[in-house]
Write a structure and sequence with these properties.
The structure is a homodimer. In chain A, about 40% of the residues lie in helices and about 15% in strands. Chain A binds a DNA duplex through helix 1, helix 2 and helix 4. Chains A, B: It comes from Pseudonocardia zijingensis.
Amino acid sequence: MTDPAPEAPARGAKAVAQRAGVSVTTVSRVLRGQDVAISEATKQRVLAAAKELRYRPNSLAVALRKGHTRAIGLLVPDIADAYFHQLARGLEDAAQEAGYTVVLCNTDRQPAKERSYVELLADQQVEAIVFAGGGIDEDAHLTDFPWHGIHVVAIGPHRLDCPSVRVDDAGTIELAVDHLVEQGSTRILCLAGRPSWLINEERLRGYRQAVERHGLELDPRLVRTGDFSVEAGCSSTRAALDEGVEFDGVMAFNDYTAIGAMQAVTEHGRRVPEDVVVVGCDDIPVSSLVSPRLTSVSFPQYEFGRAAMEVILEMATGKVATPVRQFAYHLEVRESSSRRL
Amino acid sequence: MTDPAPEAPARGAKAVAQRAGVSVTTVSRVLRGQDVAISEATKQRVLAAAKELRYRPNSLAVALRKGHTRAIGLLVPDIADAYFHQLARGLEDAAQEAGYTVVLCNTDRQPAKERSYVELLADQQVEAIVFAGGGIDEDAHLTDFPWHGIHVVAIGPHRLDCPSVRVDDAGTIELAVDHLVEQGSTRILCLAGRPSWLINEERLRGYRQAVERHGLELDPRLVRTGDFSVEAGCSSTRAALDEGVEFDGVMAFNDYTAIGAMQAVTEHGRRVPEDVVVVGCDDIPVSSLVSPRLTSVSFPQYEFGRAAMEVILEMATGKVATPVRQFAYHLEVRESSSRRL
DNA sequence: CTGAAAGCGCTAACAT
DNA sequence: ATGTTAGCGCTTTCAG
């Protein structure tokens, strides 16, 4: 008399199947194409039904079944740092083209945060994780991680044994120091990052090599550490100035720091570039907006992002991924370092 | 004689169950806590087994079963635009605290891209989608979308009938124009965005209201549209200057545009703020780095992001979400508008 | 050319 | 207090 089950309306592929009068298997086959042959008639019926029902496969179910998602995690120290914008954009653009999705994670370069994100991403079965911005000295929190099928790519130097996309960080700084020397600098204030950052390690090596090569004195008081912020650049420079440390050039390891340095120099009554020439690194967009406009080492961050995605696609298709993709860099000479401009 | 099945080693919860000598149900119960009572003994055994196997539940399976993920999609016009950094950071920080994950999508304000992302996110069963940066005039590509269980929040004005987090956009511009008038401006060049952007519509209303209120002439040649970029601000201002349109103040609807305007004004041989006072809106970090430092209307973008997450959490727990969360704004007066500074 | 059945890894009813 | 069963929505053998 009474229906044993109220028979809830079918959802998903099953609904399409009912409407087209076929099995879910057939629906799946038609919608994915590239399978065994299907008669034109049923194919059309399924397509029509799917369209009417606005059917779209549940990615979760597909991923669970297939064993892999089309999501990738992007770990950056801080998305508010301009260094990562073009990179994130490039990765995201390339990801979208390939039908992938990007999960954004800010780590503040804290191992604990990084670790917890990696776990979260692994739980979500992401297909790959991109570490951007360079790793840190002790990456023990990652080396013992059970990566299983997760592909890993680093943008910048990293302790992890994975393909990387990068620039010759020591080289960028050498190039910049060469330029400072050409401009007549003999005592170059070096505004570095944190000692534990690998990127800092490399850039510092570049500074040391160039300074030695030019036969300049390697005064330890000329090397200062900071957190790559405008404030850090400003206070480090101010400190050097207050301590009476002489310098006629500033080599900042990133642009924010360089901008802070220019502020401190100016505030101290000295002129850029007449009294002190300043060069930064990364060439973020702000650098051409401040005044004097900042000279900086430039390299294609947007392409870093795209390249990272390409590497992921290589790995996903089982190819042997290019272990290191190194990009070219050049100096964007602007007012802050050019006494003749 | 031969084993019927090679008996692949169990994975996931099943492996933990075997190791602890219990059923997967028990494993599930123990690991989630908050269920029926479990004897202390088995609980410890399960916990130990899970730990040894470094077991973590597969989020995909959990989501498929429970019918909802803990992911949210963030749609921004362009993550390279500083306006969205603090916002993205705020959302992401709050999301992480709540165990959620943020999928980043750049739309370039293109309906097609927006639509395709929304579909992709819906396929992935995200729990919510955040539209940031204000919608566009014809959001037909979204109004007919089958949202089903997906929560929607807008940061800024939007045509969609959803909770929103925002500032009084007309009010921000009115405040800024009031300030320009106080500084003695009587002919204020208005650098607007695209007519189809809702945020532009509102800001334009603010400009008109303030201009009328002060009894100033509403010269159509003083209103220019652009895409919110430095270049647009620069070329629009240059055009006005070249056409001989008189103005002694600039009201730019965003900071990039204002910076471009300052460049054009300076390049034309006129001084900021002596000859022309300039005010922007949004108060992005660069504004205090350019020179002259830019006066701008400030409001807490970081909090916008956090608030959006709060609204999502409200909706997810079935509460009635606050329909509109409006934040305060104030003018950050700097050199570009202060003839007395 | 098409369908039935098994199962991805998990949780929720329903037993016991 | 614990286990058995069913099923989330899909793809993939395996059979016709």
